[in-house]
Amino acid sequence: MRGVIRVALIAVALLGTLAAPVAAGPFEDGVAAYGRADYSTAFQLFRRLAEQGDASAQFNLGHVYNKGQAGG
Fold first, then answer.
1. How far apart are CA 24 and CA 10, in angstroms?
2. Distance between CA atoms of 68 and 25, rounded to whole angstroms?
């Protein structure tokens, strides 16, 4: 199950980069922060986007909560 979630996060991150290849934004910054285990920053970035209705950020925010890594 853990591997499935990791693959899903990678897929979401890749899809996000295809949508906006010109410049990285808050979502990509959140993915990068999560990748370097900076969960507090990832949480904050995903939460702001999730509140604006970004489904990918909502998914990733749920993952952060599920893993007990929410610290914002």
1. 16
2. 25
CB atoms near residue 49 (< 10 Å)? 20
Write down the domain spans for the chain: 2-66
Cut 0.85: pTM above it: no
List pLDDT tens digits, range 24-61: 799 999 999 999 999 999 999 999 999 999 999 999 99
Show the tokens assigned to 60.
């990733």
Please determine, for residue 15, whether its predicted confidence score (pLDDT) is greater than 70. Answer: no
Whole-angstrom distance, CA of residue 18 vs CA of residue 70: 27
